[in-house]
Records
---
Amino acid sequence: IKIGQILSAEKVPETDKLLKLMVDFGEEEKRQIISGISAYFLDPQNLVGKKCAFVTNLESRTIRGLTSNGMILAVSGEADEKIFFSLLETGADVLPGSAVK
């Protein structure tokens, strides 16, 4: 699990749930991650700049013809008859690529 900074976020055309994220993990190449979190972000641009926890040691998967190289971590559930959803975010001073311990 590493911290990645979201550089761009956009809806995947012809899907209701998918977002395409480009994420900086402090590596030479940025990673593309496809995630089913679109319902929680009416404007995907609100994700740009966020530093979140990602699983980075998964095998690549093809989702709707797009390669996904990781998975963003989030918490969701229901409390007091209300549904909640939250990405696992860090403070501004954490560097991309930092390992979660």
Note: Residues 57 and 70 are 7 Å apart (CA to CA).
---
Amino acid sequence: MTPDLKARFDQETRSHPVVIYMKGNPLFPRCGFSAAAVQILQAHGPVHGVDVLAEPEVRDGIKEYTRWPTIPQ
């Protein structure tokens, strides 16, 4: 993971109470797991979504950043 990508993850997770790295976005999830996760999270307030399908480096980088192998996160 590049230092710039790590800085981006740090900034996103500190700037929003809830962030989800998902396939699609909160309005148009592109997988069932992402849709279910967004629905649960939105019940507790606003959710900032990041579409990992639009940015392959984010899709790979978030897995390294969190040390978790699957999306959504």
Note: The CA atoms of residues 43 and 56 lie 29 Å apart.
---
Amino acid sequence: EKIIDSITYAQGIQQSILAEEKEIQNVLPDSFIYYQPKDIVSGDFYWISSVNEKIIIAAVDCTGHGVPGAFMSMIGNSLLNQIVNEKKITTPADILTQLHEDIYTSLHQKNKRGQSQDGMDIALCTIDNNTREIEFAGAKNPIYIMKNNMVEVCKGDMHSIGGSEILKKEKAAGRKFTNHKFPIENGMSIYLFTDGYVDQFGGEERKKIGSERFKDLLLANRLLDMQQQKNVIKETFEQWKGNNSQMDDVLVFGVRL
């Protein structure tokens, strides 16, 4: 009971660093956050900031879930605040490159004494309403773009932020991320998410929801406002999961531009 009470108290601390959905809607009026931790505290977190008239948003999936994931989420949130709010870096690829180097350094992953080889996958984009452009970069995670009655997928790079694989394949300074640009079109929607939703087992055959089924769900409900879409996404997840246990933390961040 003491351990559960302690973790539940920690949940309040973790949630205090996350913007409330109403705060996000002050900046992005037609948006939603579907956030469902697996074990009280979460290794997933969402992040938003406004710098130089640009809005930067991210969906982040840290190694693990529960307490270890929550520790990593607090580190990731703090580093994003430093990189974007203090250093004023707003280009997504540059943000991810700096985040990777900071995780690598702060967890001493280049040293034998570094006990943690953890990291995070992330989808991050900058929305510039002045230039009417979106910039995106991802570490393993993609962005889904809904326009012209189609879902376009822009994949992230195939390496994570931090983690043990850098010890085998490359130096920390060698990791770069790709920057993608898209014009903002009227009525266009974007979706950032972690893998917890698409990887959930369930249904009659106990299969994963999967990315194709998720894209079909978004496409079928594209005309609904974002809060209605959130309700559909949530209800579909719960129905699919059924009596199965939740596999991972779940996070979906949707915005209509």
Note: The two ends are 45 Å apart (CA to CA).
